[in-house]
Queue: 4 jobs
Job 1
Amino acid sequence: MMAEEDVDWTQVFDRVKGSIFSIQFAPKQDQLEELKILADEVKTVKDKESRYDKVRNGHSSTGFAYYSRPTGLLIMTSAHGLSHLFNASRPLTRETLDMMDITVLCDHQEETIQEARLVNAVRKYGTATVAGVDSGEDTIVLSVENSSLKNYSDDGVCAQAHPTLEISAKTPINHRQCMMVSWPSNMPRMVSIGTTVSSRGIDMPDPLGYNMNVLEVDMRTAESSSGAPLFNSNGEVIGILQGRLSRTRSIFVAVSHLHGWVQAAHGA
């Protein structure tokens, strides 16, 4: 293993970039009223107009491939960007997520667009379906067929690899460098370098019913980076972005909560 001061994050990034996805959750137009009713019932957003804005605008997040099947991938992301639709007594469900159009965009298509400097490019998102959700542990799992991942140059399927990322089996060591790769709105391949601080139970006001351990990291993170994977120097996932504690400190869902999804996928 490389010494801490010798970590080559460029190499880690090059290994993982093809596994990162932009994810869009958009309300189905014929489900808008039902989603507004649900938002009114859970009232995690107090102001009515703000609630309705969140319902109408949907949500974007970052996700990553963690399991591959012959016909497609499983992609993991976070749930908290949809917190206007659930609370502690009414967790987020598949039925609620089915009221949305969920689409994904792979890094390879975006790379083509960026390299060609296509300012007005219309991106070709692929359809995803819900494979699992646990809002208490801030996790959504999506299934996407290989045939849904399009390339940009024609109407064909993306032929490049989307390697599945390995989730670390160990709790991260404190005070070690780490790297997050995220896809905020219109900002693909955003890299943030930080330092692990501590692993602990979540200790924030809990109207959403969180029941999980988190990894605290000295790191600046951008809006719409939710769900982005955090990597150790070996390129293993050691958490997924849960939120910001302050301008310079963020928290990530601990890997202990991710292992069950991997085990379930292998057992399917």
Job 2
Amino acid sequence: MIPGIPPRNTTPQSPIFQPQYPQLVFPPWTSTTRHDTYPAISPTNPALSSKGKVILITGGSSGIGAATAISFAKSGARAVIITGRTEKSLAASAAAIKALGLGCEARYFVADVEDAPRIETIFSAVSVEFGKIDVVVSNAGYLPDHSLLKDAHLEDWWRAFQVNTLGGFTVLQAFFYGASKLVAVKLVQDAQGEWPERRFFSVQPGLIDTETSSKSNVPGEYTVDLPAGLSVWLASPEADFLKWRMLWANWDVEELKSKEEEIVDGDLLKIVLNGWP
């Protein structure tokens, strides 16, 4: 359970929240929900400046990853490094960053997040060139084919677990030593406990039309710029009170900030096992 978030079958109170497929998402934690970027998370907001920061994004060749790379570049990042499996798409994404003309360095590396030696090499190379890595967005993901349980292919299901969980852990380990999505959320909390000086967040982007989500056969409800802008906001001091926690990209950050005391004092928005032992 996640304290502060009602169970999946709870009817949300806010009339704003009326998704086309309500069974696929949690009710929102904020009364205001968003479908596109907005001023509070805009990468051009001076309060969220990424000036001088080095950003590394996995799965940065398209979709949410590519949009997040652009957002950090617009926010003033010194360098944005993206990884992915398709060189052509990576090159196009890196070129789009440079085309902004904002002076942001762009690098790309072809890599599978399951390949630990390759990921470690990339983190080392970036650290040598730029001296540090300030922000890591572990965005690479895989969605198995949509099917009934009896028709599911074990290899395809296992591939999702490997990318979403093993891949996420590989990136996390490379950063500091240098099931599936639900397990990734717990990894974030465990990592925060081991490295309290760092800030970790688990972001659920929601229903967005990307190459990965196309397998679900469910139309998107949000733009890629929504989670992209949220990533920039999370990298700013404003989001410090949300470390260790999970949140959805469509939650309104101004409302979250107004509930800071409630979230922190109530230890909300974490995955915990209450009542035992």
Job 3
Amino acid sequence: MGLFGSKKNPEDLKYDAMAMMEKNQPKAAISLFNKILKQNEDDEDVLLNKGLALNQIKKYSDAITCFDKLLEIDPKNAQALNNRGISMAENGNIQEASECYDKAIEADPRYAASYFNKGVLLDKLQEHEEALTALEKAISVDSRKPNAMVYKGIVLGKLKRHEEALNCFQNICKKYPNNQDAFFQKGVQLAELGRHEKAITVFDEILKKYKDNVNVIYAKSRSCAALDKIPESMELLKQAITRNPKIIRNWAKEEPIFTKLHNNDKFRSLVKL
């Protein structure tokens, strides 16, 4: 066959596809994965990565098809089971998602992502104590990544165990000083413990870098209100509502700290009370 009729080497296609994934171009990657699968429909790496790319673009049912094909070849593939669980959860099939995570854990008890995703799922089901158990297992299996630690702190906060949550976030901040999620949550827990001056110091530090972050603006507004800095609180609340009207208004209406402002005309106008 002449040069112009030759097929590109599958390994070269795979290299190009993974480069697209690294550049956050999953659609381009999927196109290349499809070319490889035409030459070898049982390529396990390609089936896995195509499934991951499909999850990225929210084509969860198509992703499940990829993972199912891979699991026919390798039923104990923990990555495929775990990511099939993510697809199932996003499709609203909670029970099957949970089963996928359990199967992934059984297939590879050292695969931390499965414990983490199970913890997230349990938290969404309001099963917070069980979520903590799964997240703590994820941390024990792989303590190098902060995501399970951050989520553990958030769950502790939901359980009103604010001192424990604060301690969790302080430890993360020491170990990962650039983790803004942990730093923000540290401020949130300080506020929950009534230490609003310290909380505002945290929020101000974040706003130096992320001045338009609506969650931080709202959190600072809340702490200012707790300290009776009402004009500043109202200005910050106005900024937050401008950025995300529906959610911030709902939060403000339900926030106990703002109860004392329910007769304040400016507050009532801002939140449409």
Job 4
Amino acid sequence: MLSKLQQHYGNHFSLHTADHPEQYYWFADQAGVTFGIAKTAITSSELDLLHSLFTEAETDTRLSEQQIFWKNVISGDLQGEHPQVRFRFIHFFLKNDLSDQDAFLEAVSGIFPDEVTVLFMSGHHGVLIEPKTNETEELPYDQVKSVLTADFYTDLDLFIGRWMDSYAEGAEQFRIEREMFSSIRPFLPPQEVYCREDLIPYLLLLHLDKSASQFISNLIPDELFKDRDLIHSIKIFLECNMNLSMAAKKLYIHRNSLQYRVDKFIEKTGIDVKQFKQAVAVYHALISRETTIS
């Protein structure tokens, strides 16, 4: 049967694996032999017939050699000697499970070069593995969210991990990065891409005891939180590196209006948020209040 299928589909037929497995439909015969047929070469009626004759192959059998390699790195099961390259994980989290992971993989493959590997860890969480070479340029991660959100109608969060120089540390680092980001993801403000420095203030505050957290929150008087526009404006002002023009543009208000709100906050609290130390303290107080309320 397989020989006839191979004869019929020619170069569109593949046994066991392929360079781009996401571009194939994968099946297994009664003997457990896995084969794939290119999606572009098969009609809907032929696909229905194949589903009636064969079972759909398990996910692992559809992984490329590159995907299997990185899956072993992440699980800590990598065996033997391998040429070492510098690499990092870019974790992605979807609001909803994807109904068509193959289409998602195909879309991601169209954005990034071949060196970037994509692995799904669950229906809503996966990872991009980016190796660093002498020719590596900064990849357009800031474009990924808007492109994929538009194509698949689901929200997407991206978290960029740190560069590593050893496959041996990959499994533990993957676990730490995933756990840290997952724990504070509900509290993070929306943005295209998250880095480690975005997580640190939230990680510090979420692991404080109740007394320390309350001490920080009380830096700003309770009555000021009734003025939501003021509090929101100060937070945006701090997130824009205390740049009035940038923050005003983000808030869609005139620069003078924002200046008035900053001056009002300073007058009410006695804390000059235009100075670094005071700005850091206020920002932590705002985050502490947000995480406590959430």
